[in-house]
Amino acid sequence: MGGLGVGLGVNDVPIVGQPVAFGAGFIALLVVCFSMYVARYFYFYASTGGALLVLVGLARPVAGYTLGDEHRVFASIVGFVGGRTALVLQAIGNYVGAPLLGLASAALIAVGNPWAVLFGATFLSLLALLVALNPLAFTIPLLVVLGLGATLFYGSGAQQAFAAAFVAWFLLLAGTLGAFRIPGLGGGPNTLAGKTFIPGFLWQLLFIGVAIVALIVGGQLLLRPGYDIV
């Protein structure tokens, strides 16, 4: 049976500790490790989404974002008190966005709501389309909307469950790999060091630590029935 209504039925499909969780994790690992040239753009998009969410949380207007080999988030942050703090939080959100979004997705699946993962990813990608400033920045969220949207409307419960688990695993795995490659993405910790006077290597360790913890906890949530975040 297809249709958006099945999206709610997917919450009754077992995922945690089931073959769907292991299978989605294995496929996500293959994509991240052997198709990183393509997968990196989805990782860049997810990490940029973390910075955009920070700006939204700070109630700052978002001018838009671009996506490419290097990505940036443009926001109207000039002329208000606490500008340095906002810039630091935005940068942190950029580097921890993917693993933390993956952990949130795994937690939603663990509490029996994988439909929220698919709907959330689709909805946020629709919003991202509105502030895309270059063709690639428009194309990546459009692909997410089309892929997950088709799954929401036409996929079976099992297909929706697999898609939700894949989203969680991809964010966790790509986020961990990305944390180790931050220096190659355009400054990263060194930029934050200049804004906070905290050494860049400490920022690097922080981002790696967050990604590894998110992967471990998220993996437990997806693979171990009854596992809870203490």
From TrEMBL:
InterPro entries to which the protein is assigned, alphabetical: Peptidase_M50B-like
Signal peptide start and end residues: none
Keywords: Membrane, Transmembrane, Transmembrane helix
Record's keyword annotation contains Transmembrane: yes
Membrane-crossing segments per the record: 20-43, 50-67, 73-93, 100-130, 136-154, 161-182, 202-223
Membrane is among the record's keywords: yes
Pfam families reported for this sequence: Peptidase_M50B
Name under which the protein is recorded: Peptidase M50B-like protein
